Amino acid sequence: MHDADIQVIRIGPGSQPAEDDGSELEYLPMPHEMATYRPALLPEREEIAGMEAGLRVLRDIGEQLAACCAGAAARPIALAQLDDANRRFLHQVLGEGEVSARSTRDERLRVQETRLAGVWWVGLAAQDQTLARQSLEVADVPAALRSLAFANVAPAPGIAPPPGIMNALPVLAELRERSRAWRPGDAAHVVNLSLLPLTETDLAYIDASLGAGGILMLSRGYGNCRISATALPQVWWVQHFNNDEKLILNTLVVRDVPTEAMAAAEDFADSAERLAGILEALQ
Fold first, then answer.
1. What residue ranges in the chain does DSSP mark as E strands?
2. Domains contained in the chain, CATH given
């Protein structure tokens, strides 16, 4: 599991001419490649001798995926008892998937989705950056990310609106009201900054006023989706980039965790089916 370089770039919508100057309207190219499931290169049957502990972990994951499909909560699977050979076996089978995350509150935290959506590597790094502790977690999003996203955050101090501001104040007022009113289970509330008449000054003021929370995430699908918690509880930046790293959708989302970072019910079912196929091939 690697420590992905996750950056969140906050820039506004592309400027357009106020009047028709005869030039042809150019659209940003949409992402044209999608990250898809790539089956693991499984070891040969004669190579899995002694991998009983790793196989038990895979069967445990299968049981937890079935439980998640039924709406039950899963639990972390500790890997401390495994020897190096079984750890390598699990990494070969499970690999790395689309979503990675890091914490600005605890720099030791390492989170990486496996090839199976909804199954996560969760680790703590030692001072030399080697993994001191690692587990697997079956969940829509690991518990550590939920707990750290808005932990110990304080509202940004009041900042006087700068000259040239247009619509930042009503956007911030809407977000603060939605943040105060948010309750678990509420549907996401999305403010699409790409569709609003905002200046660069507006965007910089919104950024400074919201502050930074405790989690940065990257979801690779069509292009990249970069997700960061703000210091305003349940308010996230969610930014979609195309393959050329051009920002094509810039939003602020009020939710416990944005759906772009979460495994859905159908993901659990799909991962359970894929894991069953892997276990069958290994038997």
1. 77-78, 99-103, 109-113, 119-125, 131-138, 189-192, 215-221, 223-229, 235-241, 247-254
2. 45-140+264-282 (3.30.1370.140), 150-261 (3.30.1370.140)
